[in-house]
From TrEMBL:
Every HTH cro/C1-type domain range: 25-79
Keywords: DNA-binding
Protein name, as recorded: Transcriptional regulator with XRE-family HTH domain
InterPro entries in UniProt: Cro/C1-type_HTH, Lambda_DNA-bd_dom_sf, TransReg_Diox_bact_type
Any one Pfam family match given in the protein's UniProt record, by short name: HTH_3
Organism name: Amycolatopsis jiangsuensis
Location of region: Disordered: 123-145
Record's compositionally biased regions (Basic and acidic residues): 136-145
Cross-referenced SMART domains: HTH_XRE
Length: 145
């Protein structure tokens, strides 16, 4: 008897998430120029376990992700999103562009997003929209000739 198509999809999705988070951690570790052994020590996670996470064999818990994020000096939220624990924050095209920029570190991305969101909150609290915000113009008065 054959199983209906898609019967194993939930397990495949978990395996994909584990593989994705492992690859993401490996990329972050590589860009930070930290060895697997160094990250293992910084995060307080055994070297073999960290290796299994990076290879997609194991899916780490939120607590382990937090320890790894601390060791990599990136936001735990970034790892939670990659692991499927948190949904990708909304923020429109600006937030998407910041998150997609490969030239920025995770910390730099988070700082930019925080500043951007603070401006948006400030404008919302003041009831301003881009159209109603005061415009800054240069003094364009011409001298009489």
């Amino acid at each position: 008897m054959t199983e209906p198509s898609g019967a194993h999809r939930p397990m495949e999705k978990v395996a994909d998430i584990a593989s994705d988070i492992g690859e993401y951690i490996r990329q972050q570790r590589s860009s930070a120029k930290i060895s697997l052994r160094q990250l293992s020590k910084l995060a307080g996670v055994s070297n073999p376990y960290l290796s299994q996470i990076e290879r997609g064999v194991r899916k780490p818990s939120a607590e382990i992700l937090q320890q790894i994020a601390k060791g990599l000096r990136i936001s735990a939220e970034a790892l939670y999103v990659q692991a499927g624990i948190l949904d990708l924050p909304t923020g429109g095209p600006v937030g998407d562009a910041i998150r997609a920029d490969t030239e920025l570190t995770e910390r730099q991305k988070q700082v930019l997003l925080d500043v951007y969101e603070s401006f948006r909150r400030e404008n919302a609290a003041a009831g301003e929209t881009p159209a109603s915000a005061p415009k800054t113009t240069r003094d364009t008065t011409e001298e009489s000739v």
